[in-house]
Amino acid sequence: MSDTVNFGDVVMLMGKDRRSFIRTVTPDARLECHLGVLEHNALVGVRYGAQVRTHLGRKLFVLRPNHDDIIRHLQREGQIIYPKDLGYIALKLGIRPGVRALEAGTGSGALTLTLAMLVGDEGHVYSYERRQRMQSRALTNLRRFGLLGRVTFHLRDIARGFDETGVDALFLDVREPWDFLPQARAALRGGGFFGALVPTINQVMTLVEHLYRGPWFMLEVEELLLRQYKTIPARIRPDDQMVGHTGYLIFARAVERDAEEQREQLAETEADHPTETPADDEDTQEIPAVTG
Amino acid sequence: MSDTVNFGDVVMLMGKDRRSFIRTVTPDARLECHLGVLEHNALVGVRYGAQVRTHLGRKLFVLRPNHDDIIRHLQREGQIIYPKDLGYIALKLGIRPGVRALEAGTGSGALTLTLAMLVGDEGHVYSYERRQRMQSRALTNLRRFGLLGRVTFHLRDIARGFDETGVDALFLDVREPWDFLPQARAALRGGGFFGALVPTINQVMTLVEHLYRGPWFMLEVEELLLRQYKTIPARIRPDDQMVGHTGYLIFARAVERDAEEQREQLAETEADHPTETPADDEDTQEIPAVTG
Amino acid sequence: MSDTVNFGDVVMLMGKDRRSFIRTVTPDARLECHLGVLEHNALVGVRYGAQVRTHLGRKLFVLRPNHDDIIRHLQREGQIIYPKDLGYIALKLGIRPGVRALEAGTGSGALTLTLAMLVGDEGHVYSYERRQRMQSRALTNLRRFGLLGRVTFHLRDIARGFDETGVDALFLDVREPWDFLPQARAALRGGGFFGALVPTINQVMTLVEHLYRGPWFMLEVEELLLRQYKTIPARIRPDDQMVGHTGYLIFARAVERDAEEQREQLAETEADHPTETPADDEDTQEIPAVTG
Amino acid sequence: MSDTVNFGDVVMLMGKDRRSFIRTVTPDARLECHLGVLEHNALVGVRYGAQVRTHLGRKLFVLRPNHDDIIRHLQREGQIIYPKDLGYIALKLGIRPGVRALEAGTGSGALTLTLAMLVGDEGHVYSYERRQRMQSRALTNLRRFGLLGRVTFHLRDIARGFDETGVDALFLDVREPWDFLPQARAALRGGGFFGALVPTINQVMTLVEHLYRGPWFMLEVEELLLRQYKTIPARIRPDDQMVGHTGYLIFARAVERDAEEQREQLAETEADHPTETPADDEDTQEIPAVTG
Description:
Four copies of one chain form a homotetramer.
Chain A: E1 10-14, E2 20-24, E3 30-33, E4 36-39, E5 51-53, E6 59-63, H1 67-73, H2 83-92, E7 100-104, H3 110-119, E8 124-129, H4 132-144, E9 151-155, E10 167-172, H5 181-187, E11 188-198, H6 201-213, E12 216-230, E13 237-238, E14 241-243, E15 248-254, H7 259-269, H8 281-286
Parallel strand pairs in A: 7-8, 7-10, 8-9, 10-11
Antiparallel strand pairs in A: 1-2, 1-6, 3-4, 5-6, 11-15, 12-13, 12-15
């Protein structure tokens, strides 16, 4: 990556009021905003981190957007998955370069974009959506960041299953995810990572019941709350208002189980799931003896 | 990745009580745990997602660990950065394949490992630590997951600066991060992503004051709370106890500013930072007109 | 209240390690604790806020306990309602001197005690419990703080209803509160305050469904999270662990509705309930014109 | 309290859209609202919990307001203390019938009103405010609910101290509470309850430092987060937006300490403060032996 702006770069321009604009630098294009007009041509050669001036002399910082910026600026329709959740989902689904990940529905493409960014050129993302309009929007969003090549988009209902098999991770962001668990299990490799996001406690209950009966293990229900602070040095404090809820995150692993085990399950799950601090000290002690 | 276990694979073995063990499958090695003894040799050829039996006939699921599992099982000394924070940090620092990221201190290597996993073979991680013992532990952790080749470890105090320049992202997990801001700015490329984690509000105040006066922009203070639920279908409820605090996350961008701007700053930052819902509808509207 | 300790006073003794003991000062009684032995007789005449010494010379502060202290020291069996919830419940149920309040079950008496303390001598509390053992414990707790005279205890199942009618407020802390809604409605006066606490989302769903169909209005589901901080001046920070969940609080008002309204209800409740900041500015403006 | 409305009653009228109006029922007065006009005379004799119709035939429930309703409808100027905090503050300050409580500043009177309601006719509230305009507003609010007789209002700066001594509880809701700690200590009885609310972490730090050095004990810093849920039975979920911050609550007890102890203090406070679950089982066991 160059230290200065070139045509084709995706830049974020931000005034001191923190209003920002993400643009692909294009010959002869112009940004018209509340601070004035800025010719894209004038951006070329500017150092990242420096400022440019609009025709009114107002300054804008020239920055590279991160994931968070990009997600906030996505063309969206309906609810998107929030940055606070995206990073955690990626981590829980074991996403990294080379991974094959599947998601449904595509929605506005916030998760699609995150997955595509992280799987690299060696990995791939398969994304299902049944609404043409949503898919088009996601396509636009992915193209803008040069990530189209890493995604295969399917336009169809997922009730009749997925084309792919042996995927490493699969995420459902649909209204009734429990209806598609057999299809999900069929697409995932053994031990593969399953995730879903649902907004209501009614959905949590139904999904947990279904996962509980099926060939799934390590069922987890979690939620993340992001608290943001005002940063004026003399008066640092949490924001008065915060996002109180986006959705419940549900994770599980695709496993093999026999009928006997299904019956046994109630007892086994009674054990509390481990907290973030592993109680398994014995294990920690043993590690050095293992050839890494 | 194969569908069955091979020697050299890093596997997670988990009983129905959710106690788990991460091991590198090694010829003639054995796992001795509360459920009995398991010969590593017996794991080879087993399908991921299936179960194996110990000498006592107790079953263990054979799984691939995800980031979260790995972090929970790290050999650790002192506090580590938690999975809930790691995914978000990666996203806010713009981490993806190809990125060059720098961190200090290395600690037990939880962030090192996350960064190394996500930057891929094209990217690189530079990690500074002054305590030999900590660095050794991190090295062991990284080696175990085959990620040593993506990390350059430095054993020294960072007061005299970093060897690298032009890095895309830099994260400080040290007691007094404000002491190293000039060094951090010197190592970062223009517009580069800065992050830090500090546990106390005293540290938040001092770090914010220093960032505020320097060549930094888009200062953000945030924290993430993870709430986990019990998943017995008939009695779903949040855990009685939760992790109430790990640390405050602080982010900023490395920018260029002149003296005049430093004076102006108080006024400009008075504007609330944007919430997760972009108020910038105008921008959203304009996007279609821009060549992606 | 006297400024010095007398026999019969309920005092809290606390060492600098913050371990505390609540005792009724009794002639010739003695406290034996980890800091040594203290004769109750030696407490008489001591100023509140001062310190006394055990036979080992260790000091204990002599304090009056507040609600919070008392609740934390209650003899308990099973889960109690926490102080963070008790204050809010009292406020939502309109508890104040003179009120008649009813609760079931009594449990260890944490809410009983809070209500009894706040309704004063003019008010009264009716408390139902079917387990003899629990009731005895609650009686002991209430007697200790001199509040027995304000409470009528009933030992029986509430399925056959409550003896009282026209109570101002009624709180259910039982496993299946939906089974007792008709009885609760019969006991409450018109417009009376109903509350319940349930730990699981399954219970929330069932209770909400039942309240929704019945003669209830202003249905609210809420929960309170209490975050406590470490208070060493140089290192102020939230506690690492916090109570992540006690229970969901559910509130409603007893109203009169006809069949037509029951049918209409779905539409009406679609409107979001008001947030803490009243949107009703018009109302605020009108108030001065009203004779207070 | 009567089961039907009388002149002089303070009633809350609420439509099915949950918009509400609190009024003192006054001969010949009228409510004009978005649902139409309602003559107060028509309210007299209506049963609480029933509905009345406006001249447009729109229905309004006739309810008694609880604390929460009253606080939400207060005439306010600037920030008020929220219901979620008020109940907890009352509990932590040991407020109950007969207590003498002091507060500064009066503000819009939310806490004044809560205290006045709970101390009963036997107790009393002393409230200091230096801004005439704020005090007038609080007076109007208190008069409306018939609580003026329980409050003594002072219009002046508290720098020169409080007129009262030996009060049971004292709460500071002022910008720089640390400036008034000696005055607060002088007003409080030994062992008395001190509380304060401050919005920023800067203030928390300064106040903790001051309390730490002075004749105070059991220092606590806490905050309460209230999460409200949407209650449509088929789609129960937390509200998308929530109040993310109102203020930090700080509590302490007024004690006597000598110079030696001030020096010792650092060590003693290192011990973590007790969590909500008392570890003091020994104490719980001993209680039965104590004469209640």
